[in-house]
Amino acid sequence: MAKALTTSTLRGLQVPGAQERLVAKLFADDTTVFLGEDDDYAEVDRVTGTWCRGSRAKFNLHKTEIIPLGTPEYRAQLVATRALCPGGETVHPDAHIARDGEAVRLLGAWIGNEVDPSQSWRPVVETVKRNLNKWAARRPTLHGKKLIVGMEIGARTQFRAKAQGMPQSVEKELTAAMRAFIWGEGKAPKVAMATLQGSYDDGGIALLDLEARNVAIDLVWLRDYLRLTERRPAWATLADVLLADAVSADTRGTPPAARLNTFLQTWKVSLRASAGLPLYLRRMVKFAAQYRVALDVAKPSSDVCAAMPICALGSDTVSGPWGSVPVWRRG
């Protein structure tokens, strides 16, 4: 299927810096197809129809979800006309087109346009609270409560926290539910949570530290993003584009084409919500700054220096299409 889609006339998305166009991603029995502005839905029907006839497989059209990409006007037009472009073939009536504010599940994560990240967590939070109340009725021991917290809060939230990040409001709500489960609703804690979260040698019970777990997840995102080798994940190339678009106001003079990697250059990323970064990238950049992640090479070789991206040095400026900008040279 992947070969059929990538060798078709579909153009997909060309991500700046990526070696290949983004047309399709497959995982188990889930297929995600990316369509560019000039692609026609009829070509998707043709390719998938041919593959289905040859393999005797069948796509569940009623499970097909379409997430529009582009301006708000284009997204509204797609919902209204059910056509990717004027005059193009309309999407099958059984396929669902997500409206703005509506989250769609993709491999366990919930994504969409103008979606409140905390709203997709509501079912999980309610399930955790309901299950903790059931467990509390059995009056487990303190050690038993520690194991239950690991199952209900730790295991139930870990994949989604990794896939799309956990909003701080959800983290606080789950931590409060954990505290109430350990000591009882409305009762004052007898031991500080930080003590319970410590090791047995330090007098704790190794209780789940949800905040530390989430920070660790964000730092793993950062580690993978900074893997500047042939093993660098595909999402990191798209992250490069999103981070470059979210440049802070005080470093906006950096030409867009020169914004390659904020951790290797002098331009900075804005963490304001208006900058448009997804939650997981905002958290990744936030904790990179908090833990002082920076390029620090005592004696870089000439090969390393030659491979470094261009950066701004000194105070000299020149006039260009972006106005007065720093002189750009390699360090």
Structure description:
With 331 residues, the chain is α+β, with helices and mostly antiparallel strands. 40% of the residues lie in helices and 11% in strands. The protein is globular and about 70 Å long. Mean pLDDT is 86; it is low at 312-331.
Short structural summary:
By secondary structure, this protein is α+β, with helices and mostly antiparallel strands. The protein has helices at 2-6, 41-55, 72-81, 122-136, 142-164, 168-183, 193-196, 210-225, 234-245, 279-290, 302-307; strands spanning 24-27, 30-33, 65-66, 96-97, 104-106, 109-111, 311-320, 323-329.
The string of secondary-structure elements, in order, is HEEHEHEEEHHHHHHHHEE
Q: Ends: how far apart?
A: 46 Å
What overall form do the CA principal axes indicate? globular
Percent of residues in helices = 40-55%
Strand order of the largest sheet: 1-2
List key phrases describing it:
alpha+beta; globular; 11 helices; disordered C terminus; two-stranded antiparallel ribbon; 8 strands; about 325 residues; two-stranded parallel sheet
Layout of helices and strands:
Elements: H1 2-6, E1 24-27, E2 30-33, H2 41-55, E3 65-66, H3 72-81, E4 96-97, E5 104-106, E6 109-111, H4 122-136, H5 142-164, H6 168-183, H7 193-196, H8 210-225, H9 234-245, H10 279-290, H11 302-307, E7 311-320, E8 323-329
Parallel strand pairs: 3-4
Antiparallel strand pairs: 1-2, 5-6, 7-8
Helix pairs in contact: 4-5, 4-6, 5-6, 5-8, 8-10
